[in-house]
Specification:
The protein is mostly helical. Helix content is 89%, strand content 0%. It has one domain: Four Helix Bundle (Hemerythrin (Met), subunit A) (Up-down Bundle).
Length: 133
Amino acid sequence: MKNQLIIGACLAVTGFFLGFLPQYFRLNDARSDAASLTGQLTAEKKTRRIADFRNRAAQLYFEVENRNFASAAEQASKLFTDLRQFTNQAEEPIRGQLETLLQSRDAIIAAIAKADPNSANLIRQVFQQLQQV
C-alpha cells in the first residue's frame, strides 16, 4: 500500500511537470516576442516623431514663403522647443545630428522676426538635414 502511494505521488508530480514544461517554454517564447515587438514599437515611434518634425519644418517653410511671418514665428518656436525635448531623450547617433540642427535655431527665429525672406533658405536647410536623420 505504501509503495502504491509513493508511485501515485511520483506519477502525479511527473504529470504536473509534463504539463508545466510546454507552457513554460511557450511563456518564454511569448516574453521574447513581446520584448522584440516593444523594441520595434519604440523604433517606429522615433521614426514617426522625426517624420512629424519634417512635416512641421515643411509647414514652416511654406509659411515663410507665403510671407506669413507671425504664424511662422510661432511655429518655429514650437518646432525647436519640441525638437530640443526630443533631442534630450534621443540616443547618440541621432542626438548628434539633431544637436547640429538646433544650432540654427537662433538664426532662423531672428530672421523670421525680421521678416527676412531669406529665412526660407535656412529653414530649407533644416528640412534637408531632417531628411538625413
